[in-house]
Design brief:
two-stranded antiparallel sheet, alpha/beta, 6-stranded parallel beta sheet, 9 helices, 2 domains
């Protein structure tokens, strides 16, 4: 990687951290029981990681009401249990060594994100955090990204910043906000059914050859 970025923005779930499968399976089993609609392993993984893009579009395609699903899903999730089931990717450790301002832009809700940051002891990695809501907007919209850039109080000229994430929505949010995009492909196009392309496309941050 040759670009000396002046600030970094990162996604959380699937990019820096992930969750043990047993927890994911238990959550979807309980949600499925409450909705009277079981979810297969493949369906659970697809929704958890957003492999097909918009989760709401995917739910609609399965004839599952998105609003009812998410209300049930968030009611089922236990923040502390999820935090204790969350692990840090080995290659994510580079973030701790960044001298530049670092922001976090995640679709993971605040009541889940906060315990994860505390449990993994990575809160001090980030100078600004945005847990997306309907008010902030959702990636790939640029609004939550632009909000974090404002909080970081950094220059926004072309080529000064980068956003790294594991989904197409992260790449879209980066480009829509005028940033470079790093796609960290933790699953591969064979699982997604399509290829996500960014300015950089890697399987691990180790491939970036950061100083």
């Amino acid at each position: 990687m040759s670009e000396p970025y002046e600030y970094w923005l990162l996604d959380l779930d699937g990019t820096l951290v992930d969750v043990e499968w047993d927890y994911v399976r238990d959550v979807f089993d309980t949600v499925g029981d409450r909705l009277d609609r079981p979810f297969t392993d493949a369906e659970a993984e697809t929704l958890w990681h957003g492999l097909t893009g918009s989760r709401n579009r995917q739910l609609d395609a399965w004839n599952v009401d998105p609003e009812r699903f998410w209300t049930t899903f968030h009611d089922v999730e236990d923040p502390q249990t999820r935090a204790e089931s969350t692990y840090l990717y080995d290659d994510a450790a580079f973030v701790a060594g960044l001298d530049e301002p670092v922001g976090l832009v995640t679709h993971c809700q605040s009541f889940l994100t906060e315990p994860i940051l505390d449990h993994l002891d990575i809160r001090d990695w980030f100078d600004a955090v945005c847990c997306c809501t309907d008010e902030t907007g959702w990636k790939p919209d640029p609004e939550p990204v632009e909000g974090v850039i404002t909080d970081l109080d950094v220059e926004t000229t072309e080529g000064t910043g980068v956003l790294a994430g594991d989904g197409a929505c992260d790449v879209g949010a980066a480009w829509n906000a005028g940033l470079d995009a790093i796609h960290v492909d933790r699953h591969g196009p064979h699982q997604r059914g399509h290829c996500v392309r960014g300015d950089y496309r890697v399987d691990s941050f180790d491939e970036l050859d950061l100083p």
